[in-house]
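agent> Task received from the user: take the single chain below, predict its 3D structure, and emit structure tokens. No templates, no multimer pairing.
agent> Plan: (1) validate residues, (2) run structure prediction, (3) serialize to tokens, (4) report one or two observations.
agent> Step 1 OK, no nonstandard residues flagged.
tool_call: predict_structure(input=
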Amino acid sequence: MPAMERTWKPNVTVAAVVEREGRFLMVEEETSEGLRLNQPAGHLEPGESLVEASIRETLEETAHAFLPESLVGIYQWPRPSGDITYLRFAFGGTVGEVLAGRTLDSGIVRALWLSEAELQACAERHRSPLVLQCVRDYLDGRRYPLELMRHYDA
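)
tool_result: status=success, residues=154
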């Protein structure tokens, strides 16, 4: 490989799929394409496990403490523009009540609960097609044990 050639790697992200009484925890966030809806989600940071990242991102974006219980799926999505490929690990789990006084991450407008029908009705506002796919997979009963993944500290 020529020295000038850039090494390709996907962007590793995590997402929390949280359902309560038929509604899913979502965030409305500011993006370069305008306001979009997404699961609480974000990038894996150095030194953290995928599970730890899902807990952190959910807390930062929703002010809810997240308890991951299963892996819903692993998704590879190259953006249509071809500039980025995402490798998303979606975790199913539960959240407690909102932690009072906690501010949401920069760019997050609000956290909200939406039904599958409401999510389908606003699919054009989703951050990516993975948003609805994760919900559908969750509703189809896809739950894999967290032990499927191993995190080794240095």
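agent> Step 4: summary for the user.
The beta strands are 11-20, 23-31, 34-38, 41-43, 64-78, 85-98, 108-115.
agent> Done.
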